[in-house]
Fold:
Amino acid sequence: MIYKKGEFEIKLTLENSYQRDSHDNVISFDHHYTHGEEQPNVQIGISIYRNGLRINGALVAGAQGTTGIHEKSQIIHENAIAICCSNLVFKLSLPGLQLLWVTEADYITCFEIFEINDDYVIHGEASISRLAGNGQLIWQRSGKDIFVTIDEVADDFTVENNCILATDFEGNRYRFNLDGEEISI
Structure:
């Protein structure tokens, strides 16, 4: 995916075959950010371009469940990017790609990130989390089953009107307010 932000172009790529210190990599990264000692199974490349020239690159990596790159897997601000990778959320400065913070937001994997005021709501497989703008976990909630449905209906997980609506694998529906309190549907 490619995003335009001011004078910069930000390109996100899955780099799961990337091997650090290997000469066989198609692209190299200036920064490598991981969390923990395990071998990563998800690696996302973030490349910054100005006037068509690549000026910076970072690789974020995690060892838990898989995460893809899609419209809701990251939020790009004027001076930072917050991105889901594995069970983690990374926040990096733009255009320097310095690590601002990394937080484990789910114990399996993180699918989507939503901005709420200056915080983030994370749609994870096992839980829904709210992170402060500095990466601190504010609250985390789980359901009777994982927050994934077999049908992948468009409204399986939404954040609107100060509510988080979620459906678990068994079809149970949940509604949370932004303070993480479950409210009746």
